[in-house]
Amino acid sequence: MQKRQQEPVWIFDLDDTLHNASAHIFPVMNRNMTEYIMAHLALDEQDAHRLRQHYWHIYGATLKGLVRHHGINPHHFLDCTHAPLDLANMVLETKRLKSTLERLSGRKLVFTNAPLSYAMRVLTILGLQDFFDLVFSVESTHFHPKPSMLGFSKLLKKIKANPCDCVMVEDSLPALMTAKRLGMKTVWVTKQLKKPIFVDYRINSVLALTHIQL
After folding, report:
1. Are 203 and 187 in contact (CB under 8 A)?
2. CA distances from 94 to 101, 126, 201, 207 (A)
3. Whether pTM exceeds 0.85
4. In the CATH scheme, what is the code of domain 9-20+91-211?
5. Distances from the Cα of 150 to the Cαs of 80, 102, 171, in angstroms?
6. What kind of fold does domain 25-87 have according to CATH?
7. Which residue, 10, 13, 4, is CA-closest to 166?
8. What digits encode the pLDDT tens for the residues 52-101?
């Protein structure tokens, strides 16, 4: 008898994957982070901006650099930079998103570097607040955000899943690289045409997920 194929575990990034955060959210969020660094590290705007980008490039998240090198309280940083966002007027909804996701068989969860409160606010606006089995936020990783292998390991332990059964859907190449190293299938959400070898599928929009053959 042929063995029944394991249904996939779909792991979705949130920002710039399930919705367009670059249009309205990220510019304001980045400004909030720069101002936070200016206030707490006594830097001028140019140096604060440079430090924010430096940590983002090294760690995949400004937060990790600030915690590791400056002793910043991660909860305070996240609250100051995310809570003030007027998400109701910033989140761009994608038509047919929920119906597209419903057509995908298997478990579905969100893995985001954002704080849980922000993620739930966004998902509520998108009408997806009760859709996913789990929202695994930066707090869930104990502040080891993607692309950290440790953060991924904590997620896999939480969901008790084999990496080879997981499909990572992301806009971030460093996160996809970690996912592939663990043995996951990788889907890159991007407008770029060329894909690196560790990306299995490249799609323009998460709506195209139903067209790929795993």
Report:
1. yes
2. 12, 8, 21, 9
3. yes
4. 3.40.50.1000
5. 25, 30, 20
6. DNA polymerase; domain 1 (1.10.150)
7. 10
8. 999 999 998 999 999 999 999 999 999 999 999 999 999 998 899 999 99
